[in-house]
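Problem: given the chain below (386 residues), write out its structure.
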Amino acid sequence: MARESTTKTPRKAAVKSTKPQPLKAKAGAKRKSRKEKPDVEDEEEEDIYRKAVKEYDSDALDDASNVEPEPAPKKRKKTAISQGKTTSSPRKKSRRAKKDSDEEFDDAEDEQEVIGEIVQAPKTGRVPPGQISQNTLEFLGHMKDPKCNNREWCVTLPSECVASDTPIAEPVYRVAEKEWKDFVEAFTDAIIEVDPEVPPLPPKDVIHRIYRDIRFSNDKTPYKQGFSASFSRSGRKGTFAGFKPGNQSIIAAGAWCPGKNELSTIRANIKRNPRRLREIISTPDFVEHFGEPKPQPEGERSNIFGMEDELKVAPKGVDKNHKDIDLLKCRSFAVVERFLDSEVLAPDFKERLAKVAAVMCPFVHCLNDMMSVMESESEGEEDGEE
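Solution.
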């Protein structure tokens, strides 16, 4: 028993005391030395890198320094890749191209000589806002000439298209357009007083574009030969004003070629009770401006009758001897009054237009009701009157 105890104890002590401790100390020393050594090497490498970059960026750059530093090409390569991925929008490209062209034009202005004469809007003959001038009348008159009916002429106005020899300083179309907008703004205030249903919209929302629809026309001139604007409730029929030289300026109101459903509704209301429409077109003021309320021989224009699209025979399903056959033959329900150029140039022209619009107002309201009132409602009104 004593021998077994003496033999086992030294072996356990030898395992604990001799082997583990030296190994731990050596491992710790190695780790410490490895940890401290890279710090010095990293600092030396950073110093070398800074010197290389400094030499690369210096003015005394030689062939050797171009080859040695590697980080710089990597940066340029990455930048090139990132720039290649980003694409600029078409708007930015157009702005950049326009800027470049403007700079080239500015540089060329001092070196090149402009050949030709640029004639623009006359400085004389201007009128206060709310009036039409002779200059605008002459400008629209030139629109009949195909040589002048193009964008280049409207912007620069070459001298061969100008009747007068007055030198001018800004595009004539812009001056004429501004004059028309001022007139429309003043006329809107006047027509609102006689027709409260007309909304007080700005000129840009009521004037028509000067561009023509040339898709299905043999005449490919891009611009109309006059200015025009419409004053009405949204989606309803109203008053139309057109300014055109050659004594062709007009003010009109009504429904031109209404759709199939609208025309059917109007005719249905005429069959049931045409009294309101006949009373309006027969008033003395209405007859004074637009003529007698009955068809004229040989299809002459008078009142709402004599339009080009008027039927020669009774509509389908209507007896030709119907008591209101004259109204039922109409496909358009509109009236027009024309003005001379001298009347258009008068300072009180917008007031005169407002007076005519006041006569048209009941007619416009009647048509709007006849196109929108349901048949059952019209029957109730007729029964109540009886």
